[in-house]
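Table S2 (continued). Query chain:
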Amino acid sequence: MDYETVIGLEVHAQQCTQSKMYCGCATEYTNAPPNTHACPVCLGLPGALPNINKRAIEYSIMTALALNCSISDYTKFDRKNYHYPDLMKGYQISQYDNPVGSNGWLSIEVNGEIKRIGINRVHQEEDVAKMMHRNDDGTTYSLVDINRSSMPLMEIVSEPDMRSAEEARAYLQKLHSILRYLGVSTANMEDGSFRCDANISIRPRGSNELFAKVEVKNMNSFRAVFRALEYEAVRQREALAKGEKLTQETRGWVEAEGKTLSQRSKEFAHDYRYFPDPDLPPLMPSKEWVDEIRSKLPELPEARMQRLMTQYNLQAYDANLLTESRDIADYYEEMIKAAPQLSPKDLANWLTGAATSILNTSGCDIIEFAKHVSPASFVQLISLVEQAIINSGTAKSVLDEMFATGKAPQTIIDEKGLAQISDTSALESIARQVIQENPQAVADYKTGKAQALKFMVGQLMRLSKGRANPNMATEIITRQLGEK
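Corresponding output:
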């Protein structure tokens, strides 16, 4: 039987506020000693009363607006009851039937096709503490670090509109980019500030009747989400082929083994015994407040991509690369301001090529890169290539040195003697040496092998330590070969 995959995603994003969701404890806990950012509210001590973090609500409304949601004029907080060691109160303050925003959408592009994914809801809740598992000489035990407890958290729940792991990955990447553009979350998957749970089931193609839904957890990268969903789609189909019954359950992704493992039966909403939190009043966001938040929305990635294409005549591929990150797009437009005489396409090529290579190798982001190589100094380097003072190969080496030292490009060129050799007599001398030392390449060239010329130009570049003007080198060698 032909089955169709049905996927919905639940994303939890920590918010970039200075204090926690319901107390005044600082949110900068990552490098703090365990249990030093905690108070009676974080600990869930009897008599401790929570207060609502206004900035967190503002960020949730901003996110909901960016996702085309309707903003509720009445929203409240509920207690979601379950008992895990990392949940200090024995319940989580969340939102059940009156979320901040609902009925939105997000468009994605997969294989050249645009698809709209529904956003069921954006609601406000709090994070849990962090479990730390230990093994000391064969003795295993677990500790709880409460620093993360009560961190402000948004949950963004999609509709089950995705039909493949590829669509799920595209949705996550788009949502991740939007949250960073908004500045409401660092959205770092590595430190857990952007986490995803996936609900996946299958059904006979053309049918509306789904088999049991499986929730997949423990995915900490886009790649992990993609692999886990691909694995689970196959596993469910194979189980039915064997005559096995699919059950509603929670499964964990095991990266090292490349498979999901059953963890527990999946809870239903009534298992959590939701009821309104008696310590927190309902919120009724005014139209004026929502409009004020709407006015603060930045240009989002999709709109910025279209503008870059129109304003700078970029192709969709280049504009997409530049706008995946707000910081990279900002850096690019600063480059254009610093050198309006240079081609926007050439600037884009340098930023998405040589600069991105440094980012990938060093593991830093564009903000850290800019501390060493400002947009103005980067375009100075590119201008030197345009003026034929250095060639592009040398420029990449200079860029590496700029990133390592923070020095200006001209300073590095002068210190290392990297200026391009454009002196005809000097290049002719080197060309004669290349021809003399490579008789086989000369013979190959005379029999029509074009690759032989490229080889000899490469030898000239080597002997000049990369400083020769490549166009002049090609012209001079060609001329000298013609004279022989």
